[in-house]
Amino acid sequence: MDNSETHNQRIATMTFTSVYPLYLKKVEKKGRTKEELDQVIAWLTNFDEQKLQELIEENATFEKFFQQASLNPNAHLITGVICGYRVEDIENPLTQQVRYLDKLVDELAKGRKMEKILRGT
To answer: Which InterPro entries does its entry note (predicted)?
Structure first.
């Protein structure tokens, strides 16, 4: 993963709306549900279903998405490798938050138990 400012800016301007269907396809392909995906997103961001839908409809960028999020206090417990880099070592806060979400979606798709994905909360 490129840690350059260009890369971080590209992530900031990417829309959640464009990525959400890819997340959904990934988890459904592995036998998980939209409800489980939304539960994982809600755990990380504290968004309810209505707020999540609003952000999707307004085509919110990841920057706006995470500005409005109230990140779970246990988000720092999300560790591991995504795209060849350790999530906990990513320096740019927004890039790290997006990678937290990517990591949670990966764990869901890999069949990890929900209590483990949600870090026991």
So the answer is: SP1917_dom_sf, UCP033199
Residue 111's Cβ-count burial label (10 Å; 0-12, 13-18, 19+) is exposed
* Beta-carbon count within 10 A of 103 CB: 20
Q: Are 45 and 71 in contact (CB under 8 A)?
A: yes
59 neighbors 17 (Cβ within 8 angstroms): yes
- pLDDT surpasses 70 at 2: no
**What's the pTM?**
0.92
> Structural domains in the chain?
5-115 (1.10.8.290)
